[in-house]
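Retro notes (design track)

What went well: tokenization of the new backbones is finally stable.
What didn't: we kept losing track of which sequence belonged to which structure.
Fix going forward: every design gets posted as structure first, then sequence, in one message. First example under the new rule, 262 residues:
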């Protein structure tokens, strides 16, 4: 098999793996998966918002998921590591999944769009664009595009600071596609930078300390204090969607604002 066919085959398997994980660990807020092949096996990194759901009780979830990856997806000796997402509101895949659940519950798509954009911008995004397509309001297929903030659409900046994801959801009206693009401020790099240095006083930079990985024996670790679990916070994505559903109904759409202005 040529190198081109190998690349195509690996990309196809990765696509199938992402589709499976999107449904299998949906309650954990799955974002993306990183796969690295090593001489001893395959490293699989799962980016989720709730690692405890993936790990399971005493590691049962990890063991079951390892068997599935090894049997169904032909991954050699998979070693799974779970990575927690600090700000899930800035991850397009997480917000696509949340918006798709709102649409599947029967929420009006414009209310879901306005709520999702408001949530992303409140999290500190530089800009957001949400495109919905399909049978939105009738038998004929259509699409709508809503944007807020600053969002580069072409060039090097668009490749660096903009991330996007696409998801499809089945509703009573038909199949609806959702595409979310998010521009993150922290990735912005200015093209020019003005540096001012004074000859009289030059501030010495502190020495750079290299970080090293330290192996710690599990027997030497002492548990000082256990972090209590807050019962008021949602434990799964479904509980979060159920809480947000009441707030989404209070969001004003453009049609309601136009009627008030008339």
């Amino acid at each position: 098999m040529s190198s081109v066919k190998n690349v195509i085959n690996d990309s196809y398997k990765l696509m199938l793996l992402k589709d499976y994980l999107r449904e299998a660990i949906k309650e954990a807020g799955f974002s993306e998966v990183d796969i690295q092949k090593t001489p001893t096996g395959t490293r699989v990194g799962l980016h989720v918002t709730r690692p405890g759901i993936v790990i399971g009780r005493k590691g049962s979830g990890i063991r079951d998921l390892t068997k599935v990856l090894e049997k169904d997806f032909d991954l050699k000796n998979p070693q799974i590591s779970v990575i927690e997402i600090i700000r899930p509101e800035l991850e397009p895949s997480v917000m696509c999944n949340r918006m798709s659940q709102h649409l599947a519950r029967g929420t009006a798509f414009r209310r879901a769009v306005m709520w999702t954009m408001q949530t992303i911008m409140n999290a500190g995004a530089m800009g957001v664009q949400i495109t919905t397509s399909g049978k939105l309001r009738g038998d004929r297929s259509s699409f709508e595009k809503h944007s807020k903030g600053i969002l580069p659409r072409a060039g090097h900046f668009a490749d660096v600071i903009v991330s996007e994801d696409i998801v499809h959801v089945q509703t009573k009206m038909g199949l609806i596609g959702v595409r979310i693009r998010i521009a993150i401020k922290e990735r912005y790099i200015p093209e020019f930078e003005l540096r001012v240095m004074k000859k009289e006083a030059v501030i010495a930079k502190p020495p750079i300390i290299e970080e090293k990985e330290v192996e710690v024996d599990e027997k030497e670790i002492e548990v000082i204090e256990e972090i209590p679990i807050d019962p008021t916070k949602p434990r799964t994505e479904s509980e979060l969607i159920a809480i947000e559903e009441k707030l989404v109904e209070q969001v004003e759409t453009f049609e309601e604002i136009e009627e008030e202005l008339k």
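Added context from the reviewer: Confidence is low (pLDDT under 50) at residues 201-206, 208-230.
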